[in-house]
Amino acid sequence: MRLERLKRALPYGVLLAAGFYLFYMANRIEYFAPPGRIGPDAWPKIVISLLVAASVYGIVRALTRSSPEDRHEEAVVDAPLEDPEPPVAVEPEKTYPGLLLLGILATLAYVALVRTLGFFLATSAYLIAFMIIGRYRNWAVIFSTGIIGSLLMMFFFMRVVYVSLPIGSEPFSAVTLMLMKLMGIK
Amino acid sequence: MDNVLHHLAIGFLHVFEPWNLAALIVGLVTGLLVAVLPGLTLVMGVVLALPFTYSMDVIPAIILLTAMYVSGTYAGAWTSILFRVPGEPMDVPLLWDGYTMARKGQAALALGWTLTAAFIGGLIAATFMVAAAHPIAKIALTFSTPEYFAILFFGLVSVVSLGGGSLTNAFISLFIGLLIASVGVDDTYGAERFTFGVDILRDGIDYLVVMVGAYGLGEVFARMEKGFKSAPLQAVDTVKTRLPKLRELWGAKMTYLRGSLAGIIVGLVPGAGATIASFVSYGAEMQYGKRKEQLGTGIPEGIIAPQTAATSSVGGALIPLITMGIPGSGATAIILGAFLLHGLQPGPQVFATSPNIVYAMFASLFVGIVGMCLIGYFAAKVLVKVLDFPEAVVSAYVVMCCFLGAFAARNNVTDLWLLASFGILGYLFERFRFPITPLVLGVILGPLAETNFMTTMVSYDNDWTIFFTRPISGSIMALAIIALVFPLVRHRLRSRKLARTAEAGMRARRPGPTEEVQS
Asked: What sequence ranges are listed for the domain DUF1468 (chain A) (predicted)?
């Protein structure tokens, strides 16, 4: 029970610590203001103070509420209307934290590599990886949509919208440059 | 008035130019598709479309986004009614009567009621928008910074108090949004705030990156954790729309009117959007409807009320955007972004500086509503087939559009890191039940609120009471406080009533002393 309450209070604790740190940072904002005028630190300090106050309230509430069943108390405005359908026994929704972690890692890897690999290579690899992580197993669709989709996006954004997408560095840039030549992108 | 009609007529001419009409149709179809897909929200859809408008002229760009916005409030109803899959949160009330009606074998008629609701609600709101925008802009010209700050304060408070869920969490979300908006070099003193020595943060964090990350990427991560379950498709081949008879339509006239009014008013409030309008309107129907006792049993009023409000909220939300430069919702924030990208600042002056663009947008709303209903009537069967697409594939492309949207804004890979960070933040918000909308509204409205607050403080010698002592700003601040306190009071009253009912129930069940003696 106590652990449960601490768990519920944790996000507010993190926010409280962040609030204090940001207030400290706000105190260090350098500026020159005429006497009697409020400075650029005033607005953030007001907001941080409100954030800290809300976090403290969140912690107190999390620590003093007995169980999550009391959560309806937290809801000031719950869904205004209930589903009039008769309640049916619902199994707890299955979750896949492993997939989520892989998805986030793939996304971060894409951001880290897009400048090195160039848009086309990084994007097709990412799209293919994402669909596989997402438990889709139609390989023909995965590879065709991954590659053709990347080519289409490259064409549209570089040729039509004139966005200079990352070309990549050697030796990967050779692929992008060749594709650009084929698409008539200068 | 003649002047307005004259400009509107020119606006219609602009809309019917080939490229603008093409943009309108593309916007309508994309909006309908986005609304049908449960993983894609209306705001996400408009966000993802923005980079595709970079190379367009301002009029087709605005027309495309507005068309997406309006049609995005309609098509989610189809999947709610047919498959019990709400395409958007705003379509949840349609499950109660729409789906129930479909189960009674009246799916085609339920779709017909939806179509008429979107059509009538949309047109009423569009007419109101055209009639009211110019006068409101004239009033807005007399506003000073305290009034603007009061309006923004009202908007921020409304989104927190109307949004549902925990009030504390909503406030925390809003404060984080306001803090994100304060990152970078400030406008008044040129001082660096919360940049932590990172160069790109000196320019601030673009609200687009926050929106795309928190709404788009965060939602994809959340669905990925649930394993990307595609919605089951049943009976798509039998999808058709049957319009109600004129006599039936006339019988529900008050519901149409109440729904449209609710939608326009909620739309006008900065921060409140189609979802809130839809719930509020259903609630109003439960209180004032002719057949309020039968709501939830599959009656047309339960479809008309939420759908009329959802579509009419578009016209309402565009008014503060055009007349004051204050985006009323996530989607209008993107439309504001499109205006700014083309060097146009919406506000009271825009009627004098760019009437052709404003009235083309207004006219496109009328044409868009008609077009949306025509496409809906003839092509619903084809469009709902998009549900057949595997969710993993759709989500992969959503993520790519997120990346391209964020990258194209500043051509900087660092923005992709910010986007990924806000994607993770958006997921964490969802996981720990912090609403995302206040965060995003905080980022969008934060700079405007700060500028107006600072200017007021400088102009009035740091006298914060000025917000309450000037008649207009004071009234708006009072409204904001009522908006904040009302849900708290209502909740307390409801809790007390529930407790009393429970107590009475317990007493009734407990055997009294005489019963005990008898037994």
From this structure: 15-166
State how far the Cα of B281 lies from the Cα of B284, in Å rounded to an integer: 5
pLDDT at residue B509, rounded to an integer: 60
**SS3 label, residue A35:** coil
Contacts of B501 (CB under 8 A, 6+ apart): none
* Confidence band for B114, pLDDT divided at 50, 70 and 90: very high
Q: Which residue has the tokens 């709303």?
A: B365
pTM, to two decimals: 0.81
A177 touches A167 (CB < 8 A): yes
Question: Chain B contact for A47, CB < 8 A?
Answer: yes
Name the residue with higher pLDDT: B119 or B406: B119
Residue A25, classified by CB atoms within 10 Å of its CB into exposed (0-12), middle (13-18) or buried (19+), is middle
Instruction: Return d(Cα B55, Cα B28) in angstroms, integer.
Output: 19
For residue range B131-178, list pLDDT tens digits in order: 999 888 888 888 889 998 998 888 888 777 666 678 889 899 999 999
Q: Is A82 on the interface with B (CB under 8 A)?
A: no
Q: Please tell me which residue of chain A has the smallest CA distance to B296.
A: A84
**DSSP β-bridge partners for residue A77:** B165
The answer to whether A77 contacts B163, with C-beta atoms less than 8 Å apart, is yes
Task: Tally the residues of chain A.
Answer: 186
Using the beta-carbon criterion (under 8 Å), do B427 and A100 form an inter-chain contact? Answer: yes
Of B399, B408, B454, the CB nearest to A163: B408
- In the predicted structure, residue A69 carries a pLDDT above the cut 50: no
CA distance B190 to B193: 9
Q: What is the residue extent of each domain of chain B?
A: 1-467
B92 neighbourhood in chain A, CB within 8 Å:
79
Please report the pLDDT score of residue B336 as a whole number: 82
Mean pLDDT, residues B12-25:
94
Chain A nearest CA to B388, separation (Å): 13
Helices (H), A28-96: 42-64, 71-74
CB contact under 8 A, B221 and A100: yes
Contact (CB<8Å) B193/A44: yes
Q: Taking CA atoms, what residue in B is nearest to A162? A: B55
Q: Which pLDDT score, from 0 to 100, does residue A1 have?
A: 67
Residue A78 pLDDT > 50, yes or no? no
CA distance A122 to chain B (A): 11
Please give the interface size between A and B, counted as residue pairs whose CB atoms are below 8 Å apart. 213
Q: Which residues of B touch A141 (CB under 8 A)?
A: 390, 393
Chain B: residue nearest A161 by CA?
B55
Cis? peptide before B447, omega within 30° of 0? no
Tokens of A58: 């969140």
Confidence band of B511 (pLDDT split at 50, 70, 90): low
- Per-chain mean pLDDT for chain A: 84
User: Which one-letter amino acid corresponds to residue B39?
Assistant: G
Q: Work out the percent of chain B whose per-residue pLDDT is above 90.
A: 30
Domain boundaries defined on chain A: 1-64, 97-183
Q: Extract the tokens encoding B412.
A: 């900087």
DSSP B193: E
Chain A residues closer than 8 Å to B432 by CB: 11
> Which residue does chain B place closest to A10, by CA atoms?
B432
Instruction: Tell me the average pLDDT across B40-54.
Output: 78
